[in-house]
Amino acid sequence: MERTFLMIKPDGVQRNLVGEVIKRLENKGFTLVGLKLMAVSQELAEKHYDVHKERPFFGSLVEFIVSSPVVAMVWEGEGVVASARKIIGATDPLSAEPGTIRGDYGVNIGRNLIHGSDAIETAQREISLWFKEEELCSWQNTMKPWLS
Ligand code: RTP
Ligand code: MG
């Protein structure tokens, strides 16, 4: 089953949007398979954003990610990589559509609340960068027949 890596950035945690983000992914029908609140090391932040290392915003981006805890998550489901990117919205919150996380809550490109893997291969790389295999749980919903 397809998996993606999402990270609620320091601004999302500080603005108490952790529950809201999780709710939107749960409501869509995706399955949470990994979750941790963590302080990020300089090394991990630099590796994660390695693709942007020549960009002018790289230093301030890494500095922001290590400044305060983040919530790292792995979500599972059909088409979850692309779908989570849609739920998150465009990079610049001022261009992001209402109804998306960034469109509803973001105000600044450098404070856009959440990261989501941009492709299946990127997701695989990011999941193994942020999580050990034993930190991830594969599980099935066995409550459905019991509740309905
Ligand atoms: P992310 O990787 O965080 O999910 O965001 P994204 O794919 O939508 O955007 P990306 O191009 O990968 O950029 C990574 C993060 O860098 C910051 N950024 N600042 N012009 C700027 O100042 C600028 N451009 C990008 C954003 O926080 C973006 O999420
Ligand atoms: Mg990106």
Automatic annotation (TrEMBL):
<comment type="subunit">
    <text>Homotetramer.</text>
</comment>
<dbReference type="InterPro" id="IPR036850">
    <property type="entry name" value="NDK-like_dom_sf"/>
</dbReference>
<protein>
    <recommendedName>
        <fullName>Nucleoside diphosphate kinase</fullName>
        <ecNumber>2.7.4.6</ecNumber>
    </recommendedName>
</protein>
<feature type="binding site">
    <location>
        <position position="57"/>
    </location>
    <ligand>
        <name>ATP</name>
    </ligand>
</feature>
<comment type="function">
    <text>(Microbial infection) Catalyzes the phosphorylation of dZDP to dZTP, when the bacterium is infected by a phage that produces the substrate for the synthesis of dZTP (2- amino-2'-deoxyadenosine 5'-triphosphate), which is then used by the phage as a DNA polymerase substrate.</text>
</comment>
<feature type="binding site">
    <location>
        <position position="102"/>
    </location>
    <ligand>
        <name>ATP</name>
    </ligand>
</feature>
<feature type="binding site">
    <location>
        <position position="91"/>
    </location>
    <ligand>
        <name>ATP</name>
    </ligand>
</feature>
<keyword id="KW-0547">Nucleotide-binding</keyword>
<keyword id="KW-0479">Metal-binding</keyword>
<dbReference type="InterPro" id="IPR001564">
    <property type="entry name" value="Nucleoside_diP_kinase"/>
</dbReference>
<comment type="function">
    <text>Major role in the synthesis of nucleoside triphosphates other than ATP. The ATP gamma phosphate is transferred to the NDP beta phosphate via a ping-pong mechanism, using a phosphorylated active-site intermediate.</text>
</comment>
<dbReference type="InterPro" id="IPR023005">
    <property type="entry name" value="Nucleoside_diP_kinase_AS"/>
</dbReference>
<keyword id="KW-0963">Cytoplasm</keyword>
<dbReference type="InterPro" id="IPR034907">
    <property type="entry name" value="NDK-like_dom"/>
</dbReference>
<feature type="active site" description="Pros-phosphohistidine intermediate">
    <location>
        <position position="115"/>
    </location>
</feature>
<feature type="binding site">
    <location>
        <position position="85"/>
    </location>
    <ligand>
        <name>ATP</name>
    </ligand>
</feature>
<keyword id="KW-0546">Nucleotide metabolism</keyword>
<keyword id="KW-0067">ATP-binding</keyword>
<keyword id="KW-0460">Magnesium</keyword>
<dbReference type="GO" id="GO:0004550">
    <property type="term" value="F:nucleoside diphosphate kinase activity"/>
</dbReference>
<keyword id="KW-0597">Phosphoprotein</keyword>
<feature type="domain" description="Nucleoside diphosphate kinase-like">
    <location>
        <begin position="1"/>
        <end position="138"/>
    </location>
</feature>
<feature type="binding site">
    <location>
        <position position="112"/>
    </location>
    <ligand>
        <name>ATP</name>
    </ligand>
</feature>
<feature type="binding site">
    <location>
        <position position="9"/>
    </location>
    <ligand>
        <name>ATP</name>
    </ligand>
</feature>
<keyword id="KW-0418">Kinase</keyword>
<dbReference type="Pfam" id="PF00334">
    <property type="entry name" value="NDK"/>
</dbReference>
<comment type="similarity">
    <text>Belongs to the NDK family.</text>
</comment>
<keyword id="KW-0808">Transferase</keyword>
